Amino acid sequence: RSIFKVKKSNEGKSKKMEKEEKFFRETFMYDKEINVINRVTAECSVPSKRRVDLPVTAGEQLDVIDVTEGNAVICRNLEGRYGYVLVEHLNFR
């Protein structure tokens, strides 16, 4: 029985990730293929001020998806949510 529960939770998680990706593509008008450029760690906790900003907690692992012209990058967290994060809040090592 527990096998089915795990499978069901993974299905729910992937649906949530699909929903987040759809939101990301519509909001950011992103039509390129989503590739991970780098994996970074958040140096400090930062709440989001706008829906397009990704709230991060200190020590959280993020995937860098794209670089913008300003001092922010587009990141994805482990939950599949996308958003802008300022470069100054990230550790690229």
TrEMBL record:
Q: Coiled-coil stretches, from where to where?
A: none
Q: Which InterPro entries match?
A: FYB1/2-like, hSH3, SH3-like_dom_sf
Main location group: membrane
Subcellular location per the Swiss-Prot or TrEMBL entry: Membrane raft
The answer to whether keyword Mitochondrion applies is no
The reply on keyword Phosphoprotein is yes
| TM segment ranges | none
Q: Which GO terms describe its biological process?
A: integrin-mediated signaling pathway; protein localization to plasma membrane; T cell receptor signaling pathway
Annotated Gene Ontology cellular component terms: membrane raft; plasma membrane
Q: Which residues form the Helically-extended SH3 domain?
A: 24-90
Keyword entries, A-Z: Membrane, Phosphoprotein, SH3 domain
Q: How does it assemble?
A: Interacts with SKAP1, LCK and FYN. The phosphorylated form interacts with LCP2.
Q: Summarize the protein's role.
A: Adapter protein that plays a role in T-cell receptor (TCR)-mediated activation of signaling pathways. Required for T-cell activation and integrin-mediated T-cell adhesion in response to TCR stimulation.
Q: What is this protein called?
A: FYN-binding protein 2
Which species expresses this protein natively? Scopus umbretta
Q: What is the lineage of its organism?
A: Eukaryota, Metazoa, Chordata, Craniata, Vertebrata
**Which gene carries the instructions for this protein?**
Fyb2
